[in-house]
Amino acid sequence: MVYLKPLSRSLIDVSLSHDLINSRSSSMLLMKLPKLGCMNNPLNNVLDEIREALRTGFQYIELTLEWPLSTVEILEGAKAELSDLLASFEIPPLIHAPWYLEIASPYEMVRRGALKEAEKIMNFARKIDAKIVTFHPFSPKWLSILKEKARELNLHAFTELTELGEEHSLTICLENTDAGAFTSISAMNFIFSNVPELRLTLDLGHAWLGGAEKLKAYVRHLGYKITHVHAHDNNGQQDMHLPIGAGKLDWSLALGLLKFLDFDKTITLEPHVEDPAYLSYSKERILEYWNKAKELEP
């Protein structure tokens, strides 16, 4: 996961006094909007990242448990302070497993090691009262050459992950990706149709790489599976993880589709930037877009 340096101030105006809703309307919108959270940058001190999320007014944190500075071992070593910080949010944290975890490796020992790591993540999730854990399909370019095999291996992985999730009283989510053997709706549905308990983390930025029709297709075919949402922007061609409004994603469409589903769960803002001003900016922009969006049938 690559994090961008602070974006040029000429790209977007981050003066929070410009084009933003006032505090009274913000409070009203928060009553209507799904819960808003953000994700920590695993290259930074995780406790500092959580404090920044609290200062920015997010309602929860989605902890991505990634090397080097946000592993389970590091977080367990700071359990007392971590628990105090997490208790300050409105709702419990969500968990995001490392996107590169080799849960569907064709090498048995590698796969078993990755699934053991996944179970360790689930054990930690329960300790901090998390309810949802999101995993990416494992589908690097070298494996995706054999798409059917990649899908079969991932089916086995998500079957096992979901069974482990049930043992830990966790909801396991599969996130849609922008590359590999799972860029199509049919490939995603192959997993979901065979693992009924599995749910979808709809990444709006990833879906937008297929344009408006693909975004609508996700809602049309897999809307009933959507339990959690990731939000970030891009130019429609690259997975850029820009702040909300800094790319070409049609937010009226994206949020209108969520309104069609009566979606009232959690949306994690996921711009990969170092400057926290962009998180605050993204939070205000998505509130603004949500207020303007009209319900749209896919």
Structure, described:
The longest helix is centred in the middle third of the chain and has 21 residues, at 147-167. The protein has helices spanning 23-32, 46-56, 72-77, 79-86, 108-127, 141-144, 147-167, 185-194, 204-208, 211-222, 251-260, 277-292; strands at residues 35-39, 60-64, 94-96, 132-135, 171-175, 199-203, 226-231, 266-269. The radius of gyration is 18 Å and the shape is globular. The protein has a single domain (35-292), classed as TIM Barrel (Alpha-Beta Barrel). Helix 11 (251-260) links the parallel strand 7 and strand 8. The chain is an alpha/beta fold. The protein starts with 22 loop residues before the first helix and ends in a 6-residue tail after the last helix. Helices cover 45% and strands 12% of the residues.
Q: What features would you highlight for this structure?
A:
TIM Barrel, globular, eight-stranded parallel barrel, alpha/beta, 12% strand, disordered N terminus, single chain, 298 residues
List the helices and strands and how they pair.
Elements: H1 23-32, E1 35-39, H2 46-56, E2 60-64, H3 72-77, H4 79-86, E3 94-96, H5 108-127, E4 132-135, H6 141-144, H7 147-167, E5 171-175, H8 185-194, E6 199-203, H9 204-208, H10 211-222, E7 226-231, H11 251-260, E8 266-269, H12 277-292
Parallel strand pairs: 1-2, 1-8, 2-3, 3-4, 4-5, 5-6, 6-7, 7-8
Helix pairs in contact: 2-4, 5-7, 7-8, 10-11, 11-12
